[in-house]
Specification:
Layout lengths: L2 H13 L8 H23 L13 H18 L4 H16 L11
């Protein structure tokens, strides 16, 4: 699914509840919690912090998707079109960083 569809589906889901979208700082706190969960999993999988005995297995993809969900919520609440914003960001990186790293052969 593309970002517009993802934003629409998130809005459809949230709009069915009286509470609706949370305020921006509550969404930021939620995003921070989700990023912390991803950080914990990454540290368990690739870092120096082993899991405690009996800790349940976690799914890296689902942890990333939780973060994406909250970002979609935040964009919707702020009336931001993430597709358009991502296009602008990709162009920014293209212009700013095109000569920053060594290109792979044949990747012109």
């Amino acid at each position: 699914m593309d970002l517009k569809e993802a934003q629409r589906r998130v809005d459809d889901w949230i709009s069915q509840f009286e509470e609706g979208y949370w305020p921006p700082l509550s969404n930021l706190a939620r995003l921070t919690e989700e990023v912390g969960e991803l950080a914990r999993l990454m540290n368990h999988e690739f870092g120096h912090k082993p899991k405690k005995g009996g800790e349940p297995a976690q799914d890296l993809a689902l942890e990333m998707a939780d973060i994406l969900f909250v970002l979609l919520v935040m964009a919707n609440e702020q009336k931001i079109d993430l597709s358009e914003a991502l296009e602008r960001t990709l162009e920014k990186y293209r212009l700013r960083d095109s000569e920053r790293w060594t290109r792979k052969v044949g990747s012109d």
